[in-house]
């Protein structure tokens, strides 16, 4: 019987894994590779800040899963994972509805021999009062396009009724990580572009951008030698950067920090922190952490089921030599997908034990197995 590999999540990591497995074991007929995603098309999530600022046409840069599957010898199934039956080795997908609410695809089950979960992450607002109601998030293209439309609407109102407009727009971005920093820079550029195209009632300098970071520096996940010059560049662009400022409350027209500082903002973006999708929490008895990530071993196998793998943002994978997990970065997901591809025959088709250290490419330096020495750094 052909080995069934089911990959849930068509983000950067899941799509790469499905494509590369399809072109190898799928094309050779050694395995049936199925990719499951709730959307029909893919856009790379790190580009969503460009969609929000209007500097990227998301429809020109999207990739169609059906076409990608046809070209690369895997199968695509539209649906959102709802449940997992580890005994029967099946996953259940929710029914999909069309824009009118009619059933497009019914609820159904898909059987697997090897299951790989790569559903990414969503923004974590840490339960901050008013954040969910008054902040925009950049987890999906729809959310990014909503922010862009709100920005355009503000400019159009000012252009049509200049006497009724105060002449400035306040935008607050919570989080000085990569998304927050890049969004601030893109918005600065967008202000100049909008003025050049004739929407000059609001001058570029009157788009007031404030980046609010609870930590002590910009880009806290990266070395200080990178974060410091980025901080200086943002300030040169006219962006206000507030460090050590934890947001405690969000309202319709402002944010408030724990020390009582009030920051006026009609447009608010929350770009601080991540968590895995809520449906993963303790799903089918698998071990998860406080932010819903599936806890995995260095092999990327879940701790309680050797037939279920997880990688990318939705997985808590230990980083060798430290007490931390592999960071939630696209680069890490790419490395993990690459190693799963290289070891697919060994791990899933021939079915012997995996080497204990294949979580990331950097892990290979600690691995002393002959089979993995050629990847040592």
Q: Can you describe this structure?
A:
The protein has 2 domains: 3-121 and 276-375, FAD/NAD(P)-binding domain; 131-272, 3-Layer(bba) Sandwich (FAD/NAD(P)-binding domain), CATH 3.50.50.60. The protein contains 9 helices and 24 strands. With 377 residues, the chain is an alpha/beta fold. The protein is globular. The protein is 28% helix and 24% strand. A 6-stranded mixed β-sheet has the order 5-2-1-11-23-22. A 4-stranded parallel β-sheet has the order 15-14-13-19, with helices on one face. A 3-stranded antiparallel β-sheet has the order 6-7-10, with no helix packed on it. Residues 351-377 have low confidence and may be disordered. It has helices at 12-26, 48-53, 65-72, 131-134, 141-160, 178-196, 224-236, 330-342, 344-349, and strands at 3-8, 31-37, 41-42, 63-64, 75-78, 81-85, 90-93, 96-97, 103-105, 108-111, 114-117, 122-123, 169-174, 207-213, 240-243, 247-250, 254-257, 262-264, 267-270, 274-275, 294-295, 301-302, 305-310, 315-316. The longest helix has 20 residues, at 141-160.
Strand content: 15-25%
Could you estimate the helical fraction of the residues in percent? 25-40%
Proper CATH architecture of the largest domain? 3-Layer(bba) Sandwich
Q: What is the CATH class name of the largest domain?
A: Alpha Beta
* Spatial strand sequence of the major β-sheet: 5-2-1-11-23-22
Question: Major sheet, described briefly?
Answer: 6 strands, mixed
Taking the alpha carbons of the first and last residues, their distance comes to: 38 Å
Give the beta-strand count: 24
Mean pLDDT level: 87
Radius of gyration: 23 Å
Could you state the CATH homologous superfamily of the largest domain?
FAD/NAD(P)-binding domain
CATH topology of the largest domain: FAD/NAD(P)-binding domain
């Amino acid at each position: 019987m052909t080995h069934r590999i089911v990959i849930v999540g068509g983000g950067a990591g899941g799509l790469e894994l499905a494509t590369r497995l399809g072109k190898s074991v799928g094309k050779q007929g050694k395995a049936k590779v199925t990719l499951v995603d709730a959307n029909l098309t893919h856009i790379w999530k790190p580009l969503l800040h460009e969609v929000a600022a209007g500097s990227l046409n998301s429809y020109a840069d999207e990739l169609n899963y059906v076409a990608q599957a046809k070209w690369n010898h895997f199968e695509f199934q539209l649906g959102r994972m709802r449940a997992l039956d580890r005994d029967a080795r099946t996953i259940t997908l929710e029914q999909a509805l069309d824009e009118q609410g009619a059933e497009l695809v019914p609820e159904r089950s898909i059987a697997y021999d090897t299951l790989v979960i790569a559903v990414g992450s969503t923004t974590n607002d840490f339960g901050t009062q008013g954040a969910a109601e008054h902040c925009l998030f950049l987890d999906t293209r729809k959310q990014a396009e909503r922010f862009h439309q709100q920005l355009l609407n503000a400019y159009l109102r000012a252009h049509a009724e200049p006497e009724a407009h105060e002449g400035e727009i306040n935008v607050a971005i919570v989080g000085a990580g990569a998304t927050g920093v890049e969004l601030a820079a893109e918005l600065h550029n967008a202000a100049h572009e909008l003025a050049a195209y004739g929407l000059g009632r609001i001058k570029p300098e009157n788009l007031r951008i404030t980046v609010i970071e609870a930590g002590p520096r910009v880009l806290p996940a990266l070395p200080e030698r990178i974060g410091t010059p980025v901080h200086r560049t943002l300030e040169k662009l006219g962006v206000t950067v507030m460090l050590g400022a934890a947001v405690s409350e969000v309202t319709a027209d402002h944010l408030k920090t724990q020390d009582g500082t009030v920051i006026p903002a009609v447009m608010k973006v929350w770009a601080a922190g991540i968590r895995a999708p809520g449906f993963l929490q303790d799903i089918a008895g698998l071990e998860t952490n406080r932010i819903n990530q599936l806890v995995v071993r260095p092999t990327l196998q879940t701790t309680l089921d050797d037939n279920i793998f997880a990688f990318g943002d939705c997985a808590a994978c230990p980083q060798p030599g430290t007490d931390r997990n592999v960071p939630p970065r696209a680069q890490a997901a790419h490395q993990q997908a690459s190693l799963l591809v290289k070891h697919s025959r060994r791990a899933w088709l021939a079915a012997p034990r995996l080497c204990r250290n294949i979580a990331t490419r950097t892990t290979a330096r600690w691995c002393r197995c002959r089979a993995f020495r050629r990847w040592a750094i």
